[in-house]
């Protein structure tokens, strides 16, 4: 029964993360009892990342410092534009952004690809 409850909690957390912004997700991890594996004893749930810069979608990397950025089942949240802009910021000129997501993650896949194109990314394969 305990395992089933943990699974339900994880599914609930997942749904919350997909339907809120990164800022709201960070608040859930900070304020929600049992969300971070420590406050409520929910071992096995992911730990929230620490972000020393301005927002929870920002990574502690210098501008144009990486050759490849990868999002693998990680594009959670409703602020995808900000997340893509952050990837664009840390990528070197001519760098590669790889996205591995299930198509159902996006309400409109074409809109997502267009948002990437507006940042200068081109879709090589889908």
From TrEMBL:
Enzyme type, top EC level: transferase
Q: What is its main location?
A: nucleus
Q: Does the keyword Plastid apply?
A: no
Biased composition, class Gly residues, residue ranges: 34-43
Listed EC numbers: 2.1.1.-
List the InterPro entries hit by this protein, alphabetically.
RRP8, RRP8_N, SAM-dependent_MTases_sf
Instruction: Enumerate the UniProt keywords alphabetically.
Output: Methyltransferase, Nucleus, rRNA processing, S-adenosyl-L-methionine, Transferase
Q: Which residues form the signal peptide?
A: none
Q: Where is this region: Disordered?
A: 31-58
Q: Name one GO biological process term.
A: cellular response to glucose starvation
Q: Name one GO molecular function term.
A: methyltransferase activity
Q: Which GO terms describe its cellular component?
A: chromatin silencing complex; nucleolus; rDNA heterochromatin
Respond yes or no to whether keyword Acyltransferase is given for this record: no
Give the UniProt subcellular location, in the record's own words: Nucleus, Nucleolus
Briefly state the protein's biological role. Probable methyltransferase required to silence rDNA.
Entry's family note = Belongs to the methyltransferase superfamily. RRP8 family.
PANTHER family from the UniProt entry = RIBOSOMAL RNA-PROCESSING PROTEIN 8 (PTHR12787)
Q: What is this protein called?
A: Ribosomal RNA-processing protein 8
Q: Which organism is it from?
A: Otus sunia
